[in-house]
Amino acid sequence: MAFKGFALFSIVVLSIFASSRSEETETKEFVLTLDHSNFTETINKHDFIVVEFYAPWCGHCKSLAPEYEKAASELITHNPPLVLAKIDASEESNKGIANEYKIQGFPTIKILRNGGKSIQDYNGPREAPGIVPYVKKQSGPASSEIKTAADAAEVVGEKNVVAVGVFPKLSGEEFDSFIALAEKLRGDYDFAHTLDAKLLPRGDSSVAGPVVRLFKPFDELFVDSKDFNGEALEKFLKESSIPLVTVFDSDPSNRPYVASFFDSSATKVMMFVNFTGESAESLKSKFRKVATSYKGQDLSFLVGDAEGGKGALEYFGVEESQVPLVIIQTPDSKKYLKANVVVEEIESWMKDFKDGKVDVFKKSQPIPAENNEPVKVVVAETLDDIVLKSGKNVLIEFYAPWCGHCQKIAPILDEVALAFKNDPSVIIAKLDATANDIPSEPFDVKGFPTIYFRSVSGTVVAYEGNRTKEDFISFIEKNKPTTSHVEDTTSSTKTEEPKKIDDASDTKDEL
């Protein structure tokens, strides 16, 4: 498995020998450049190709570029050659391709097989030393056959999570189900199969199968399943590959498990402590006991080092002064917080949470003392008052302070707000989505900027038009009810499905 987003490896510098190569070699580009004129033709003639969808202005793309190029220069020597390609998805002429592949952030990397008939998200490293082996592995079979003890030792290893199918023959319904799952999840997990369980390092060596044995470097070290139903097998793999308590620290070997933890649909119970603090071990020990007592109740547990997890604390809207703390996030994104927790409180607070006795915690910026600018500032605590229950027609932008598109659109929204200054029924607003919790209904915010219009009648519509003053004004005029309409505040909010993005140049910044 690979954890997209936690790329922390050092950039490899060129050797003295490499720096002495000819200018022609140094400037040669090994990454294949695609556009609307050659994309389809190129994809169709490759059984395997990796494509990066990028934007020239994207900072993440700029960081990836030299690593991607270096990886391409190595992979092209593979037998057969493995091709890395790129396409500027922000270019107007390429917008159709960006829409076809549902590109919503940069960079997005896809692995295309069989002439583009099979599409897989690239979830591997973003540095050349990691890209090369990951791509090589993805280019091979989804599941490798274990024929010797040496094969098993190489595949299973000491720090890998790998699913090994044991079969009496390499055919049949169970084998086909296993291979189908391997193809589906090959970007996230390692798969292998064998006819001889005696070759495997752990577990009952007498079984003839069919059985799936999941090896892992934590908890019980391996677990078996004989259920080959596709959904059941996938659930077994995903649930069993997460440690009883996932550790979130600076150890790179833990990152794949952190990825699985946050990908899980279970309620997430997270404790952040200072790992070097006096009470750290007693807190972690008690937390593990609590996790054991709730095993099988659709709860996932994680313990994080507060020193190394400052970004996580910021994401959840808590302060370092509140550490040690326990924060719970449910599948509907509601959060519950116990700050400055002590060992004796962990178990009782968890029971109170399960009994529904803990209040929801909401991440919110302070309510502005003054809010007199044309575009009104909304925070989590005022979202209801200004947007959802204001009895007004509200155009609201969900933005990130660092987002280039958001910075560009800010003065335009100021002009739109001034255009409606004499219309008390219209509010133009903005909310920093990185510093405030947003309800998943009626707003679906996956990139920046995301803009919605909530009419006085309760209808919520995603704005996907051009970003000019005139287009915003026209959209508001079209969607706001007549002034004679009186809102029924007791009615439930209506939501319309967002329109399909039809302009790749408006693709949202990566979250």
UniProtKB/TrEMBL annotation:
Species of the source: Brassica campestris (Field mustard)
BP GO annotations: response to endoplasmic reticulum stress
Region (Disordered): 481-511
Upper classification of the organism: Eukaryota, Viridiplantae, Streptophyta, Embryophyta, Tracheophyta
Signal sequence interval, chain numbering: 1-22
Cysteine disulfide links: C58-C61, C403-C406
The Thioredoxin domain, residue ranges: 11-140, 337-481
CDD domains xrefs: PDI_a_family, PDI_a_PDI_a'_C, PDI_b'_family, PDI_b_family
The protein's enzyme class: isomerase
GO MF annotation, one: protein disulfide isomerase activity
Coiled coil: none
Official protein name in the record: Protein disulfide-isomerase
Compartment(s) where it occurs, according to its Swiss-Prot or TrEMBL record: Endoplasmic reticulum lumen
Catalytic activity line of the entry: Catalyzes the rearrangement of -S-S- bonds in proteins
Family statement drawn from the similarity comment of this UniProt entry: Belongs to the protein disulfide isomerase family.
GO CC term, one of those recorded: endoplasmic reticulum lumen
InterPro entries assigned to the protein according to its UniProt record, in alphabetical order: PDI_thioredoxin-like_dom, Prot_disulphide_isomerase, Thioredoxin-like_sf, Thioredoxin_CS, Thioredoxin_domain
Pfam families: Thioredoxin, Thioredoxin_6
Keywords per UniProt: Disulfide bond, Endoplasmic reticulum, Glycoprotein, Isomerase, Redox-active center, Repeat, Signal
Domain of life of the native organism: Eukaryota
EC code: 5.3.4.1
